[in-house]
Specification:
The chain is 36% helix and 22% strand. By secondary structure, it is α/β, with parallel strands linked by helices. Helix 4 (92-101) runs parallel beside helix 5 (116-129) and helix 6 (143-154) packs across helix 9. It binds nicotinamide-adenine-dinucleotide (NAD). The site of nicotinamide-adenine-dinucleotide has 25 residues, from strand 1, helix 1 and helix 7.
Length: 383
């Protein structure tokens, strides 16, 4: 796509030492369509300035409060084109509402909001504003996830009967929040994170991947959540049985106390004729097994002729040169940028269906809310 000029991004969050803020910046800038020009990076003035300098932002465009950024950038002829949200969960709703109110499209990190009630407010605001809104469910950007999605949609696996999805991490194996570790502190505080701990932080990624790849919807769930580490205020370990809208069943496992695990996101989908197996820590390979007995390992690469067009269109490199987390993140930014350019040129609904949006945000928050309810009542719940 020809880019008339780079889109200008204003970021909220992503200050020094933050995890996902720098990932957003690298991903946004990777394909040459976007530049970070403004931000409110931290509630601390000193750290906000430090971040602005680190990102080479003009001093007058480093704002101490995000509301100031929205107000000032609206007045500038070279003001920002959209707002990226990379702050803790409790800020997602207020930032998104203010950004939409000020007329700015939004690229938000997940979960869409801190609670299910909040996401309904956001859904209404997105609809009312008619502005582009997208959600960075990172794993949807991997080429081999797009291949898995295309394979499920093609019907080649036959009727899907069983799904196993897991997201295992080990970094919460001890009471990390008691040490003052920044990322752990807000994630284990219900007021800053929302009521779902592990289920909201990574369970929601597993849930999204399952629905994104299979095209199926979860209709029922029996979940058991618990806090394994004494003193922890939110769940850190979750197991759930699932029912899908085509009659399939599934299991979802999410844990942050799985000692030794890094980012063990894995999806297995079993159809009548074959199955797929994808692992985030080996993202350039998709294993496909057929009932007749053959097993394929499909490998990422722009020139790999047997891959689907959907997969190849988001890849950048020939096979054997691995693409990873930042490139997957950048696929979402590229789709968002192309959609935004089309929107600026007058197309009313330009974001592609492959890019997670507010509907995914509502599904994700519903999943968290339903999982908490199921666990509390020790019963099956409907979606
Ligand atoms: P973090 O604690 O590392 O960073 C949060 C940043 O927000 C910090 O720099 C903090 O100073 C800043 N901040 C806090 N309050 C602010 C305010 N009022 N104004 C401006 N900035 C403020 O957290 P993180 O791990 O980077 O997570 C941030 C968000 O990204 C969370 O919602 C999390 O769920 C999400 N996340 C998504 C992924 C993914 O795969 N897409 C991965 C990690 C985190």
């Amino acid at each position: 796509m020809t880019v008339p000029r780079k889109l200008r991004m204003g970021m909220v969050g992503g200050g020094p030492g933050s995890f996902i803020g720098p990932v957003h910046r690298m991903a946004a800038e990777l394909d040459g369509r976007i530049e970070l020009v403004a931000g409110a990076f931290s509630p601390s003035a000193e750290r906000c300035r430090e971040a602005g300098e680190g990102f080479h932002i003009a001093p007058e465009r480093t704002y101490m409060v995000f509301k100031e950024m929205l107000k000032a950038e609206r007045q500038r002829p070279d003001g920002i084109d959209f707002v990226t949200i990379a702050a803790p969960n409790f800020l997602h709703l207020p930032i998104a509402l203010d950004a939409l109110e000020a007329g700015f499209p939004v690229m938000s990190d997940k979960p869409a909001t801190a609670t299910y009630d909040e996401v309904l407010t956001l859904e209404a605001a997105v609809a009312k504003s008619a502005l582009p809104y997208a959600l960075t469910h990172t794993y949807a950007g991997y080429g081999m996830v797009r291949e898995a999605r295309a394979l499920c949609a093609s019907g080649q696996l036959g009727q899907i009967r069983k799904i196993a999805v897991e997201y295992l991490q080990g970094w919460f194996t001890q009471l990390l929040e008691a040490t003052g570790q920044k990322q752990a502190a807000w994630r284990t505080d219900p007021a800053l994170n929302g009521p779902g701990g592990c289920i909201g932080d990574i369970g929601v990624h597993a849930f999204h991947l399952l629905e994104y790849v299979t095209g199926l919807q979860v209709t029922g769930m029996h979940a058991a959540l618990r806090a394994v580490v004494p003193g922890r205020r939110l769940d850190d370990d979750c197991n759930a049985l699932l029912r899908l809208d085509n009659g399939a069943t599934g299991v979802l496992m999410a844990s942050q106390v799985a000692a030794g695990e890094g980012n063990g996101l894995r999806l297995r989908v079993y159809g009548e004729k074959g199955s797929i197996d994808w692992r985030q820590e080996d993202p350039n390979r998709l294993r496909v097994k057929w009932h007749e007995g053959t097993e394929e390992i499909r490998t990422a690469g722009i020139s790999t002729g047997y891959l689907s067009q959907q997969a190849r269109s988001v890849m950048r490199l020939p096979g054997g040169h691995p693409e990873g987390y930042i490139e997957a993140f950048a696929v979402l930014y590229r789709e968002f940028a192309d959609g935004l350019i089309a929107w600026q040129q007058g197309h009313p609904n330009p974001l592609p269906a492959t890019l997670p949006g507010i509907e995914d945000g509502v599904r994700g928050m519903r999943f968290i809310e339903r999982a908490l309810e199921s666990s509390r009542t020790e019963s099956w719940v409907q979606f």
